[in-house]
Specification:
heterodimer; A: 684 residues; alpha+beta; five-stranded antiparallel sheet; 24% strand; rod-shaped; B: alpha/beta; 5 strands; globular
Chain lengths: 684, 145
């Protein structure tokens, strides 16, 4: 008994003593129940506490009767069932329906679980009141395990089928993409490549076996790529790298390669799906972009270097906002303050400029704004600004738009030069110019006035000449004529000395007439207009000589005239000069036993000069300066008659031609009179 | 043949006296009519029929005259059909080119400058008289309208 549990005393006492039969039957039943090995048969009271505990219960649950009798049967339940008050549900169902059946987990004394088949039956007393429950439990563990093994087998089969399906899906997917693709097992060994891979690499499946893929990898990149991939596989993380892969023609192209882990239903990685995307163009573009960026950086550096070297301030504004994006280092020096950050053209109002008439600049009036908004090219606009220290400065602003190839305005540039000093200088210059102009005008007025006076004087001179020629000659003619008449009509009455006196009167009158004629000729030489032509001086000299011979046929003078002498001169005037010079030579050789006269041209100080030379009386060079002055004579009239006007006339003629006249001589040894006709291009 | 008539237009009485003497000395037997200014010369030559003088064979005309100048007188002479062909000798002291040119432009037949020396004056008078009164064929007389 003791080995197989006990029948609780209370149960025996409660039933009370009975007869043998009854007692025998009850005893038998009790022994039967106690001896049942395979089933735990437990009596519960109405509240679920254990009343009896048979051998099967002890075997199944591991509790001895004294450890469990009197305690709630819920101790045999799992914690989850206890929390859910599962027992109450069971008892309620049994109470109401008469019985309850289930299979479920129960807990042994040592805490282990077993799968149990449970039946709970309501036990009523003779008069129908509820006495408690009979609970019969059987260990179903063996049966459960067989079922679970079967389920597991079915599940594995399903999983394998799914895996095969997924594998095929992967292959289909991998073959349907334009990229190179491959599949590796969970250790990272690649065992499958898609069609694009073989097309691209030109390799066969055999060549790809094992680490065959390394054949198409660049040796320089291989170690890095392998290492990266291995680490990704070990960590179970997606992998990405970019490296060159050789194509069938031997060309290396760049690929972006990625691999992602494929997980099974159990969450474990069982495949790696890899792809290689041709990014050669992108890589090239990136390289080009890098090169361009480098170029741009260089250009920008150079641009800024140039900008900062400029003597003018340069400011660049973006179109269409007008936001200022650049100012060179001259900015501060020209404006007297740093760049005023401006986000829009409206902000230009803060730059404070004034038109020359003092009107402030509206924001959109600034040359930069006009260049940005209207594409206007502004050339040298003068703007006044006030420096922070209060001084007014003048700037010259020139602006232009910066356009894209399609003509769209991208930005505007404005150059600012400080022209304050320039303006000051300009104003001073203007003032001195005004003074100069006033002086010039004054001078011109004076000159005009003098010219008027000279013209008037010239007119007076002409009137005077006219009067001289008429009015002075008329009385002389009377003196001469009446002296002659007196001498003729009263010849008988006049003594010889009276007649001689009358002759003197007539000679004086005639000399005065000659003097007047010479003066008139001198006046004409001065007033006559100058007309240059090529004059044959040789022929002119011959004509003059012939006139002299005709007027004085007794004289025997040898005249040497150089052939082919010409000059650019006024023929009438040059003739007057030659007449005077030859006349002088003729006259002053009168006392020479063998008189000779030479005419020709020679170079004097690089200029063509003409000369009339004689071997006559000559003159003292000490008085040379008097030779060419009117009325100055170096010889007594009794010695050589003359008016003293001839050489003055020659001088006038030569000067009117832009030349000069001079004389060289020595008393008793002849004289040479020379002259040039500058500006006439004299030749000989 | 009656004495040729010469009209002398000259305001200087001394020149008139000298000219008369020079013509005489030159041996020219002429009748000399003298007027003292341009106005008189125009009146004598171009005045109304009852006021004007007989048409001379030759006019000796000074340029510098009171009232109407010698050039203006010459212009009037040449403008009138009756005196258009009348020989007119400009006899003057001037050697100005403008005077010379203007005289010929207005139709003077000769231009003679009066020499200061009387002998030369006589010679000039003789030559002028010999040429214009003897040698030269006088133009046909134009009858009045």
């Amino acid at each position: 008994m003791a080995d197989f549990g006990v029948v609780p005393e209370t149960a025996g006492q409660q039933d009370g003593p009975a007869g043998w039969d009854r007692a025998g039957t009850d005893q038998l039943f009790r022994l039967l129940v106690s001896a049942v090995w395979d089933y735990a048969i437990i009596a519960l009271d109405a509240r679920g506490r254990v009343l009896t505990w048979n051998t099967g219960a002890r075997r199944l649950y591991g509790y001895r009767p004294e450890e469990i009798v009197g305690r709630p049967v819920s101790r045999l339940y799992t914690q989850e069932d206890r929390d859910a008050r599962h027992l109450d549900d069971e008892l309620r169902t049994a109470r109401e329906a008469g019985s309850f059946h289930e299979e479920g987990w129960r807990v042994r004394r040592d805490g282990s679980r077993f799968w149990a088949s449970v039946a709970i039956t309501r036990i009523d007393g003779d008069d129908g009141e509820l006495l408690g429950f009979a609970k019969i439990t059987r260990d179903m563990t063996d049966k459960q395990q067989a079922q679970e093994a079967e389920l597991e087998r079915q599940r594995r089969e399903l999983e394998l089928a799914q895996l095969r399906e997924r594998e095929e899906q992967l292959h289909m997917l991998a073959n349907s993409i334009p990229q190179l693709a491959w599949i590796a097992d969970e250790t990272g060994d690649i065992f499958w490549y898609n069609r694009r891979w073989y097309e691209y690499t030109g390799m066969t499946a055999d060549q790809m076996k094992g680490a065959g893929w390394q054949r198409v990898h660049h040796p320089a990149e291989l170690a890095r790529v392998v290492d990266g991939f291995n680490r990704a596989v070990a960590a179970g993380e997606a992998w990405e790298d970019t490296f060159p892969i050789r194509n069938r023609t031997g060309e290396w192209r760049w690929f972006l390669s990625r691999a992602v882990p494929i997980r099974g239903a159990d969450g474990r990685i069982f495949r790696w799906l890899g792809s290689n995307t041709d990014v050669t163009e992108q890589v090239e573009l990136a390289r080009q972009r890098d090169r361009l960026l480098k170029d741009v950086d260089f250009e920008r550096a150079r641009f800024e270097a140039v900008m900062n070297q400029m003597p003018a301030a340069v400011i660049v504004g973006e179109a269409p906002s007008g936001k200022l994006v650049f100012a060179n280092s001259r900015m501060d020096a020209v404006w007297g303050h740093p760049l005023i950050q401006s986000e829009s053209i409206d902000d230009y109002a803060r730059w404070g400029g004034f038109h020359p008439d003092g009107r402030p600049y509206a924001p959109d009036e600034w040359p930069l704004a006009r260049a940005i908004q209207r594409g206007e090219i502004v050339d040298a606009e003068e703007v006044a600004i006030d420096w922070p220290d209060g001084q007014r400065r003048w700037l010259r602003l020139s602006a232009a738009p910066v356009r894209a190839a399609d003509g769209q305005i991208l930005a505007g540039v404005v150059l600012c030069q400080d022209i304050t000093d320039e303006k000051t200088a300009h104003r001073q210059l203007a003032e001195s110019e005004a003074r100069f102009r006033a002086l010039t005008e004054e001078l011109e007025r004076t000159v005009a006035h003098r010219t008027q006076e000279l013209l008037a004087a010239n007119k007076e001179l002409e009137a005077f000449s006219y009067s001289v020629s008429h009015d002075l000659r008329a009385p002389l003619r009377a003196i001469d004529g009446f002296s002659k008449a007196l001498a003729e009509d009263y010849a008988a009455l006049l003594p010889a000395d009276a007649k001689e006196l009358l002759s003197d009167v007539r000679q004086a009158a005639q000399r005065m007439a000659g003097l007047i004629d010479d003066l008139l000729r001198l006046s004409r030489v001065t007033r006559a207009p100058l007309t240059r032509t090529r004059v044959d001086l040789t022929r002119l000299a011959e004509t003059v000589t012939a006139d002299l011979r005709r007027g004085d046929p007794e004289r025997d003078v040898t005249v040497h005239i150089q052939a082919g002498v010409t000059a650019e001169a006024d023929e009438a005037l040059i003739r007057v000069a030659l007449e005077n010079l030859f006349g002088n030579a003729w006259k002053f050789t009168a006392r020479q036993p063998h008189p000779e006269i030479w005419f020709g041209s020679e170079l004097v100080d690089g200029t063509q000069a003409f000369f009339v030379r004689d071997n006559g009386a000559g003159f003292d060079m000490a008085y040379g300066d008097k030779l060419f002055v009117s009325f100055q004579r170096l010889h007594a009239n009794s010695e050589f008659p003359g008016t003293g006007i001839g050489l003055a006339t020659v001088q006038r003629v030569v000067r009117r031609h832009g030349g000069r006249a001079w004389a060289v001589g020595e008393p008793g040894r002849g004289a040479t009179f020379s002259f040039t006709l500058d500006g006439g291009g004299a030749t000989s | 043949m009656s004495q040729a008539l010469i009209l002398l237009v000259e305001d200087d009485p001394m020149d008139v006296k000298l000219t008369r003497r020079a013509l005489t000395k030159a041996g020219l037997h002429v009748s000399l009519e003298v007027v003292e200014d341009g106005e008189q010369a125009v009146a004598y030559l171009l005045g109304p029929d009852d006021k004007r003088g007989p048409l001379p064979s030759l006019v000796l005309l000074d340029l510098k005259l009171p009232k109407i100048s010698g050039h203006q007188v010459l212009e009037r002479i040449r403008a009138d059909p009756r005196t258009r062909r009348l020989p007119v000798i400009v006899l003057t002291s001037s050697l100005e080119e403008t005077d010379l040119a203007r005289s010929y432009d207005l139709g003077a037949n000769s231009y003679v400058r009066k020499p200061v020396e009387f002998d030369a004056f006589v010679e000039a008078a003789r030559q002028v008289g010999a040429y214009w009164l003897v040698l030269n064929q006088a133009p046909p007389v134009v009858n009045g309208p």
